[in-house]
């Protein structure tokens, strides 16, 4: 399937001729793609293909040099992350960010914005309301932790978690707000196989039971094969191909640009 074409029609996220340059280097160079609502879409490609830069532009971390990004037909190009957060577009990072000295439960309770206790003067006159909000947030946090099967870590300091547990905590943060689409950057990095399977289970459940849409950057092809359809391949800043994992594995351009001769030899073995 050619670059910029989609089997899914108009997507929840649509990227049109997107470019992001750093000096004379074109990290994203005319990328066109769609992410359809309700899918778990993989974004793969060699190091330097522009995947993370593309994520950062879509999520408002970086402003594009040119091109447009649309969400449900609305132009969201260049909107800051907190505005996109309010629209349900969330982006997680390769290295999980947590408040290390706070408990896992407290980390989750920090996520929702607009809490009464965030305003100094209200801490004096609305103590009862603040206490009620905190109880509700604690209940929701505990439900999230149970969903992710890490409720036994609720009172553990987040800084003590393993890499995989931190990734689950970061996924949990998306559940504390009304997330619609979540961009996951190398969720499997530094995570053992058991925890990676747990993370995969959680992503599938969030997709099927709660309607989350995901776009996942990942190098683990077994993980991609289990979770993702479609798979989008980037190379040299643009979209090279799109299709199912089986179609991608058979695509000669992809084999040459990304997967290498090892896969080709494996196919004919």
Labels describing this entry:
disordered N terminus; alpha/beta; 10 helices; ATP binding; six-stranded mixed β-sheet; 269 residues; 22% strand; Rossmann fold; globular; P-loop_NTPase; four-stranded antiparallel β-sheet
Summarize the main sheet: 6 strands, mixed
Question: Which fold name fills CATH's third level, the topology of the largest domain?
Answer: Rossmann fold
Q: Give the beta-strand count.
A: 10
Structural class: alpha/beta
> Which overall shape is indicated by the principal axes computed on the Cα atoms?
globular
CATH superfamily of the largest domain: P-loop containing nucleotide triphosphate hydrolases
Order of strands, widest sheet: 6-7-8-3-9-10
Give the class-level CATH name of the largest domain: Alpha Beta
CATH architecture of the largest domain: 3-Layer(aba) Sandwich
Our Rg estimate from Cα atoms comes to 20 Å
Beta content comes to 15-25%
Helix percentage range: 25-40%
Number of helices in the DSSP assignment:
10
Give the SSE order as H and E letters. Answer: EEEHEEHEHHHHEHEHEEHH
Low-confidence stretches: 1-9, 115-121, 261-269
Mean pLDDT: 86
Task: Give the CA-CA distance, first to last residue.
Answer: 26 Å
> What count of domains describes the coordinates?
2
Pfam families: ABC_tran, BCA_ABC_TP_C
Organism: Litoreibacter roseus
InterPro entries: AAA+_ATPase, ABC_AA/LPS_Transport, ABC_transporter-like_ATP-bd, ABC_transporter-like_CS, BCA_ABC_TP_C, P-loop_NTPase
Keywords: ATP-binding, Nucleotide-binding, Transport
